[in-house]
Amino acid sequence: MRYLTAGESHGPQLTTIIEGVPAGLTLLAEHINEELARRQKGYGRGRRMQIEKDEVKILSGVRHGKTLGSPITLVVENRDWKHWTNIMGIEPLASDTEEVKRKVTRPRPGHADLNGAIKYGHRDMRNVLERSSARETTVRVAAGAVAKRILSELGIRIASHVVEIGGVKAENTAYTSLEELQRVTEQSPVRCFDAEAEKKMMAAIDEAKEKGDSIGGIVEVIVEGVPVGVGSYVHYDRKLDAKIAAAIVSINAFKGVEFGIGFEAARRFGSEVHDEIIWSKETGYTRKTNRLGGFEGGMTTGMPIVVRGVMKPIPTLYKPLMSVDIETKEPFAASIERSDSCAVPAASVVAEAVVAWEVANAIVEQFGQDRIDLIIENVENMRRYAKEF
Ligand code: EPS
Fold first, then answer.
1. Is the pTM of this model over 0.85?
2. How confident is the model at residue 199 (pLDDT cuts 50, 70, 90)?
3. Domain map of the chain by residue range?
4. Which residues contact 344 (CB under 8 A, 6 or more apart)?
5. Beta bridge partners of 333
6. Is 108 close to ligand 1, i.e. is its CB under 6 Å away?
7. 266 is in an annotated binding site
8. Is residue 45 a known part of a binding site?
9. Is the minimum distance from the CB of 214 to ligand 1 under 6 angstroms?
């Protein structure tokens, strides 16, 4: 499967065309809208989220609630567009029009503004920032919602939560089941399982906001029920952990990724890192621990996939950082009109979506591509073989 996205942050709409989704999958707008609504929540968002109420239109690839196997087109309108019809208009405007004269010439440090402008030759950096905006993650979440439908048919469960914001760590993450983790985090304004940490995270966001600053954090995604052997060791571009790592780092403002104990592995002996193999008639092969986060040799082990991503603080700050105007070459203090102080809770929903996509894609490729019923059958067979092996 693959998908492309299109759309500018303040343009008319965001679009994704998803290719290769198996036929026969139940897919309703409500499945996607539920995910879009989860992404819009989260303590620390700015005023834009009060303007938008993301709702999908399914324009192709689905008939009477089932996928056809043909490309699926999903569209989400930008409600803010009505305030930007001239600035972001498609038709040319006279060169002396206010909207044409008002160029963005001051790159914000940490954004795509300057590099993008130099790369594409744009003297108005709005041409860069409109597309580099994290607004685009709306349709990545829509594509992820389709992937989550596939996982659900296969009995694969996925959840995400926030484990750190602005240096405040979730200490209590001892959830007894993924359902419990989901139930608690869906109610939390910062998508955190630990109620104590939640309060401190919210206070840290308030403090950043008051200072005109922003804060980042760490999100975790867990996938349970993935059969053994998804991905492959035989080639770099078939390793599923590598694909997931790329997907996480491709989310706006994400700077790093780790699986299981992650970077902590550098500080331990091998005997304290690798997971001992055990066997029982009921479960087949499992591991005593899951320090490697569900992957060995680029393939799933059958243990839960545990992946974390780190998000830097959003670079659009009320508190000015020094930059240079590309017209005058004069230094100036970059400042803005509207921003989020923290988007880590929303980003955990995006991370969940991109991980869901990579896992579903690998399974569809590996277990037969065209029909969901055959994929279900093949995955069930694989689960049986693995148990009897
Ligand atoms: C974003 C800037 C803000 C965020 C936006 C991402 O938008 P605006 O410039 O319109 O105030 O609200 O996020 C979304 C619109 C969204 O849907 O998540 C940026 O520069 O990345």
1. yes
2. very high
3. 2-388
4. 42, 44, 162, 165, 190, 215, 216, 217, 218, 219, 311
5. 322
6. no
7. no
8. yes
9. no
